[in-house]
What we know:
single chain
Amino acid sequence: MTELTSRSSAAQSRRRIPFLLALGCGLLALLVLAAIFAPWLAPFDPNAQNMAGRLLPPSELHWLGTDSFGRDLLSRVIYGTRPTLVLIIFILVLTVPVGMAVGMAAGYLGGWTERILMRITDIFLALPSLVIALAMVAVLGPGLLNGALALALTSWPPFARQARAETQQLRRSDYLAAARMQGIRGLPLILGHILPLCLPSAVVRAALSLGGIILSAAGLGFLGMGVRPPTAEWGSMVAEGGKVIFDQWWVAAAPGGAILLASLTFNFIGDGLRDRLDSRHDS
């Protein structure tokens, strides 16, 4: 009776959505809706300048105030979700498949293939991500796609190392031995049996790493290496507000709060997915 009760409670805990996951998904939905419906949600044109109304504090007309060019900060914060989410999508598409492909190939093939792929991975891990991103953007030029490529260059190695460790454990398992006995080998074995087991941990790692990626992207914008002005981008907005932060604090606080909210969103999602997908959290 006790065993049945424990099994039922464990099943209920797996079906229950963790609070952090629900909160993170709710915040992410708000960000996505803000990006999609920005033209209808923003009260003003984000690029319209009004020098007569520059550096106005938050009020009923301008809820978050205005910047040094008289542009409405709420409108620019709402429009700033667009380059941030597009950058995240680009980086996920570039890093997760590449990292998992390298890691699973190294873990499954072993030998010299594993040594070569892992040494390449170690080289990229030793590179400081933001410095390399700055160097690449300086060579390629500022822009959304160039910033995504620069950040993706140093973001894939953690996925490769994790996929390689999991593939090494699976390679010696009875599960794959049974699949080989059925004649499944090579690429079908990797895609059909190894990939589904490595994918949940990669999803968790991707969600947890996005918070740092958002900060790195904001850092590029802060240094003038991100999206080109006058496009609304949170990092460049913080840089503009830093010039008047002691007198007009809201100019930097508005985009800074948006960066904080976006980073917390993906941290919540990552923690919630870890609790949801990791069986060790079942009680």
